[in-house]
Design goal:
Order of helices and strands: EEEHEHHEHEHEHEHEHEHHEHE
Number of helices: 11
Largest sheet: 8 strands, parallel
Strand order of the largest sheet: 11-10-9-8-7-6-5-12
Structural class: alpha/beta
Distance between the termini: 39 Å
Number of strands: 12
Radius of gyration: 19 Å
């Protein structure tokens, strides 16, 4: 079994402005860039970008794992990374997979070749930003709801729909922050509007049965996100009968080959979404999406949230 020299570096990337969701306020993205080097001196990187409130390990747990490894790691050890470290699984798995894949030059990677969804700021700031991003060529957008009182957000949504182009698509992301009654209210409002592509995770992660009820009752599609953060959760949701959209964050999903097998085996309707990773993790996700021929816009239009664009 192959053995690799292992090094890693920890990074912290401050957001240009805090990202507000129903989970709270996110100000700094912390993660780890790993590098594996084989006996021929060939190196490949991977990225560990945890989001613990989504069900992944914490950055502290990921650092402890990297410290535990030491200076060398085998492929067998990578395959044995436990399921409670899904971001580590993706980071190490992506780097390992790269040794048998066509090389990619991250600096030359052109995201314009892919269909991207842009993340709008929460609240009324989304209106002007949507117009600026439309001018840049974006046609699919995501807007966080469940952050402000619902009456205030519905009023902003009405203005946002007026501002968006006629051919635009909007995804509403509640991050599990709505009550059942609030989810019904949003679905009632959105049903006549064809530009609403989906409402993402309206209820808490364990409320899959209630979201199945909503999906059957209303025209606007519902997508699971926090409910399907890892491979184990994807399997559980499918076993529970979820046949609508899965929003999958590869960066915290687990081993890339296991994600690919699940998506292919069950023919899942998938949106790939960012975990606010760097280009290292993003390119690994793009390559996985390309190999699976995922057609929905990818939720990786997030560059402007950082100061290093």
């Amino acid at each position: 079994m192959s053995s690799y020299q292992f090094t890693y570096s920890i990074y912290q990337r401050p957001f240009r402005q805090p990202l507000k969701t129903s989970h709270g306020v996110w100000e700094i993205r912390a993660g780890i860039i790993i590098k594996l080097t084989d006996d021929l001196g060939i190196s490949h990187q991977g990225e560990i970008a945890p989001i613990p409130w989504f069900g992944s390990e914490s950055i502290e747990q990921a650092i402890l794992w990297c410290q535990h490894i030491g200076d060398n790691i085998t492929a067998a050890q990578i395959y044995q990374i436990p399921d409670n470290l899904p971001a580590c699984q993706f980071g190490f798995g992506s780097a390992l997979t790269a040794f048998n894949s066509t090389p990619s030059n991250i600096d030359r990677w052109q995201k314009s070749n892919l269909n991207m969804s842009a993340l709008l700021p929460s609240g009324a700031a989304a209106i002007a930003r949507s117009q600026a991003l439309s001018a840049q060529g974006y046609s699919t957008f995501k807007w966080k709801i469940g952050v402000l009182p619902i009456a205030q957000e519905v009023a902003i949504w009405t203005r946002l729909m007026t501002a968006l182009p006629a051919d635009a698509k909007l995804r509403l992301d509640a991050n599990g922050g709505l009550t059942y009654a609030q989810a019904q209210q949003w679905l009632e409002i959105c049903s006549p509007e064809a530009r609403i592509e989906l409402i993402e995770q309206p209820l808490a992660p364990d409320a899959i049965e209630q979201m199945k009820e909503l999906a059957e009752e209303y025209h606007t599609p519902i997508a699971l996100d926090e409910s399907v953060a890892t491979c184990a959760q994807i399997e559980a949701a499918y076993a529970a009968g979820w046949r609508d959209i899965y929003v999958i964050k590869p960066g915290i999903g687990g081993f890339p080959w296991r994600l690919a097998d699940l998506i292919t085996q069950h023919q899942l309707d998938v949106v790939f979404s960012s975990v606010m990773e760097t280009k290292v993790g993003a390119v690994a996700a793009f390559q996985l999406a390309s190999s699976l021929q995922i057609s929905r816009s990818m939720g990786f239009g997030v560059d402007e949230w950082f100061g290093d664009i």
